[in-house]
From TrEMBL:
This is 1-aminocyclopropane-1-carboxylate oxidase-like protein 1. SUPFAM superfamilies: Clavaminate synthase-like. Belongs to the iron/ascorbate-dependent oxidoreductase family. Keywords: Iron, Metal-binding, Oxidoreductase, Vitamin C. Residues 220-320 form the Fe2OG dioxygenase domain.
Amino acid sequence: MKSTSLTEVVSENEQNYDRVSELKAFDETKAGVKGLVDAGINKVPRIFFSPPDGFDKVSNPVKAQVCIPVIDLDGIENDPILNKNILDKVRGASETWGFFQVINHGIPVRVLEEMLDGVRRFYEDDTEDKRKWYTRDGLKTVVYNSNFDLYKGASTNWRDTTYCTMAPNPPSLDELPKSCRDILVEYSREVMKLGRFLLELLSEALNLNPSHLNDMDCAEGLALLYHYYPACPEPELTLGVTEHADYDFFTVLLQDHIGALQVLYQNQWIDIPPVPGALVVNIGDLLQLISNDKFKSGIHRVLANNVGPRVSVASFFTTGLMPSSKLYGPIKELLSEDNPPKYRETTPREYSLRHNARGLGRTSALSDFKL
């Protein structure tokens, strides 16, 4: 049977396609992609078709053995030689990939598993119960919707997302979904401890005092974004997440066993395979900005799959849209006559607004802040 190419599918019925109306109809269901799957669709709606990006959706076999570093943090605080070795790995990964994984990070496996179970409970709860959380008001404590850039993106991603602001002003339990409120609080507490420790490592990797990034309040804000990627009937036509870089200082990602996360490295998509008990750490735009391009914000994406649901939890270290006058620019200790500042100062809120206005895509908002 002859397969249909994406180009052929996209050109079909072009004259009858009203994207805006279809986006609005999808949004008004307040049921997300999960609602489409529950309704029994067997074809991917046109709004989800991803334009070609010039790269294969499968990693280059020649580079199949190339992987982001997996860094074992066990014993780091008691062994100076091990500490130096780990710092070298963190520095190298942050300068080249913008990604690394950590194991023996201190968060119990039980907490990781319960967090993923809590995500599944939320999305597999009754649709009516979930709808009360559905909103496009980014200032709410809990923001559940499908595609924050639904009306801006070139294509709609095959995933639903819930955004919970957990710091600096922790929500009360009744402000969180009942299906996962307890584990959201516990996981946030654990990941915040890990985040502060990682900032110490990142500070030292920049040859700064270990407390430098924490003293700059890079861990002041924490938002948990938990994602649900339903099984897709035609995964070759869409993406779980469009290629992009994160807008925060850095992200700690908990992913389940399914995989599908990829990072762009030397113009090739490289898989980031799930490692049991591991967490993925990636540099965000704001850390690239304050490090004056020493560390790189890694471009990544998630493939759609037909074996889902895939679930993941991204912990964003940033105050995001919260009002703040605190300015962040290239760290003075990293600058010199040969390395002048490359970016102007900004607030996390200004940067987040610029990022959200652009929507997901390979060109980040960093270009808007270059000197």
